[in-house]
Amino acid sequence: MRRRNKLVAIDVVGAVALLVPAQALASSVPEGSFNPGLLLSVGSGEYPVGFGTEISGMVFPKGDPGSIGYGGFFQAQTYAGDYARLAFGFQLGNVVGGELGIAGLTRSDLHTSTFALHTGVFASAAVLGTGLRVTIPMTGADHGLPAHGVEVSWVLTLKVPIYSGKIFNSFGRPLRDEQGPITAAAREASGWADIRDPALVAHLSTREREELAALWLEAALAEHASIATFAALALELLALGAPADLLAACQQAAQDETEHARLSFGLASTYAGLPLGPGTLPLPATARLGDAAAVAYLSFTDGCIGETFAAALARRAQRHAADPAVARALARIATDEARHAALAWSIVAWCLALDPARVRATLGAALAEPEIEAPAAPLTDVLGLPIVPAARHGAVPADEQKPLRRRAERTARARLKRMLRAPREARVEGDVIP
Ligand SMILES: [Fe+2]
Ligand SMILES: [Fe+2]
């Protein structure tokens, strides 16, 4: 996300005075995961049960953890303490995949070691994985003859993924100029956030606190920019002669976003250990006053789709948030964003009635686009944050966000098509003034 005033002073850990640009907390990192864990195999061979550890790492070149990734693995197992099996190699896939590598099997008498080809297929979900592994002996270490035969094993893994990549969130309607969304920069500031009970974050490592502070700071800045979005929308509605109920709902939405920003700055400040707030906001010129088609278009893209998505995202984050303060903030945000989406539909319907020909043409053109481009999301790059603790504090991985966004767009398109086909009935459907 573009930001015009970048230098920020943040003492992220409180105890240590650091001067850190906010972007340093969110530097670009590759999308991927590092997965240490335990490994159990049951199969053919002299000793059927092997127990040990596996470490794997995957990167996702498309920048989407839901896409095909590649990486490497290392396994170390012992079989009843009598011999060990070490393997390393290459993995390809995602939820399901395959692996190819080299295995070395030893005995206590190292002279009978065996080198083998390691092949396997795997499937994984959350922390659990399973697979089938075939170890094909190739050569013995010294004598030329393998000491081990072919081993076919069923494998069970328990791994804790440590996620690297983009994570989190925008719960606000973006403030735009011609070049894209705008937010303020963060700074140390009173007036936007209380630092809550430090015990809330005492169990987190410094690294986790830094990254969660960065995450919530991005969300807070997006919410803060939304206040201006609704203020500008109120002016646009006034210029178009909108009724009082639309105007009042728009002003209420600006107040909601103010509260969302306070809640988000509060969480960011608690993780950071010092009060954070927004700096100056580089407001764009309000250029489109009196243009009902432009108001309808942005209400559709950023409100009907964007805020429906924001509501679903906040609800999803709330379900996994174990921290009560985080869960409370997300519940409030989810409820408000759903109401803002309803307001956006009301504005679309009103604009359609106001200037049917132009608004229909603009919205029809929007429907003809294969996909409505999402505003550049203030996703925060996170390196080395275990995904389970992150989710407890409100984080939603990028791969879980995409289906929510797609569903929000699909349902909004269907509803808009119905409105354009039968504007009279759709007016009633869209007339949900909060
Ligand atoms: Fe919001
Ligand atoms: Fe909103």
Characteristic terms for this protein:
binds fe (ii) ion, disordered N terminus, 2 domains, 434 residues, 3-stranded mixed beta sheet, 27% strand, single chain, Ribonucleotide Reductase, subunit A, 41% helix, disordered C terminus, 9 helices, 8-stranded antiparallel barrel, Porin, 15 strands, alpha+beta
Protein architecture, described:
By secondary structure, the chain is α+β, with helices and mostly antiparallel strands. It folds into two domains: 32-160, Porin (Beta Barrel), CATH 2.40.160; 172-430, Orthogonal Bundle (Ribonucleotide Reductase, subunit A). The chain is 41% helix and 27% strand. The protein is built from nine helices and 15 strands. The chain has helices at 22-25, 206-240, 244-272, 292-320, 324-354, 356-368, 387-392, 398-421, 423-430; strands at residues 2-3, 32-43, 49-59, 69-79, 83-93, 96-105, 114-125, 128-140, 151-159, 162-167, 175-177, 180-183, 186-188, 276-278, 380-386. The strands form three sheets. An eight-stranded antiparallel β-barrel has the order 2-3-4-5-6-7-8-9. The chain has a three-stranded mixed beta sheet with strand order 1-12-11. The chain has a two-stranded antiparallel sheet with strand order 13-14. The longest helix has 35 residues, at 206-240. One fe (ii) ion (FE2) binds at residues 171-172, 223, 226, 257, 260, 333, 337. The site of one fe (ii) ion (FE2) has 8 residues, from helix 2, helix 3 and helix 5.
